[in-house]
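The authors assume throughout that readers already know how a fold can be written as discrete tokens. In essence, backbone conformation is discretised, so a fold becomes a row of integers matching the chain in length. A single example would do more here than another paragraph of explanation. For illustration, here is how one protein appears when written out as sequence plus structure tokens:

…
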Amino acid sequence: MLPIARFALSCLLLSLGALAPALAGEDTPHTLRADGLERSYLVHTPPGNADSPHPLLLVFHGGGSVARGMPRFTHLDGIADRAGMIVVYPQGVDRHWNDGRDSIKRKVDDVGFVRALLDAMERDFAVDRSRIYAAGISNGAIFVERLACDMSGRIAGIATVAGTLARDYQPQCQPQYPVSVVQFDGTADPIVPYAGGEVTSFGGHGEGGQVLAVDATAAFWARMDGCAAADAPVPLPPQAPLDPTRVFRSQWGPCRGGRAVVLYSIQEGGHTWPGGPQYLPKFIVGRASRQIDASETMVRFFLDHPRADSLARVMPTPPLPRLAGN
């Protein structure tokens, strides 16, 4: 393993360990058996009437990461509380997800796990089945793309951060129903390239493989959703004067069934969660943008795009703080 790759991997594991203890106690651990394996996940429920159906958001960690680090990394718990949304943080086997790349070393049936997880959540909690969403970063984002391919009958929308559709999986991605998609991708991502191609493998310790380009992934979902052509990218007003990143928003539509496809292109952004921490040095993962909060933006996007038969039509939702320019 090359020294720089070994150093980067060591930094990654140290940073994940630092994030993991945060918010412990606020997210309840659960387990289930799927495909002969015991799988684990954390559940965060909003305050209020537990019997009233709530939107549900699944949040998938990146490769090498852990579920218990995601609440602090994304600060989604507080946002979800204001939105009346349940958040679930699943844990991948060996800290990875089988996202559709042929290079994935351990091909666990993670789609089957998610199906079993949703069955358990719908049994044990009051879930609005027309408002089930999924989000993830890196390996978790690529996996969320696969979920939109395989589970469009249950997942209304996805949000991907620093990850696109696996090139190997694209030919078999034939969603039965349209799915709303919002993407957040940095043009200077050194791990999952914005232009597509080879994913960094960290000297063979990562999963490697190939992904589609960001623009090609957005165009693919626009085609699957029957959307009209995209508008010209619109620059968002800067929110952090000292941050050199800039955000451009592209939207395809109108789309079939009220769906939407939106891309937030983070100019000079890295392999990071916009609005999240600079969890590793910039020379390893690139820059974390302060010009947009991906968590706030994706939750608002999800609430704006329920299924056509959504119970939310008659369910008032607490307003989210508005971000200027979004």
About this structure: The first helix runs from residue 3 to 19. The two ends are 43 Å apart (CA to CA). Residues 1-25, 310-326 have pLDDT under 50 and may be disordered. The first strand starts at residue 28 and ends at 34.
